[in-house]
Amino acid sequence: MTVKNSAGQSNVSPPVIIAVIVVVLIIVGGLAYKFFGPTPTSGPSAAATADDQWLLKVAVQCKGNPALLSGADMHTLQTKYGVTAISRLQQAYMSAGAGK
User: What is the span of the domain harbouring residue 33?
Assistant: First the structure.
C-alpha cells in the first residue's frame, strides 16, 4: 500500500523502498544468526584445568587407590567430584599411563 499525494504520485520512491527492505533483511538475518546460529565454544576454564591437574597429581601419588589418600585429600576429592570421585581418581591414574 503506497501513500499518494494529491497529484496521484507515490510519496516514497522505489530506491528508498528497496533500501528499507535490504536493511530489514540484514537486521532479521543478523538476529536469526545470533539466536539460531552455532553456539560459541570455549575451552575449559582455569579452575577446571587446575582441578584436573590436582586430580592427576593425587591419582599418581596414591596409585589410583583411594584407600591411600590422606583424609584432607579424600575430602577435597569428594567435595570437587561428588559421587564420581573414586571413578575419576582411577580414570586419572589410568590416563596418566601409570596404571599399565
Answer: 1-41
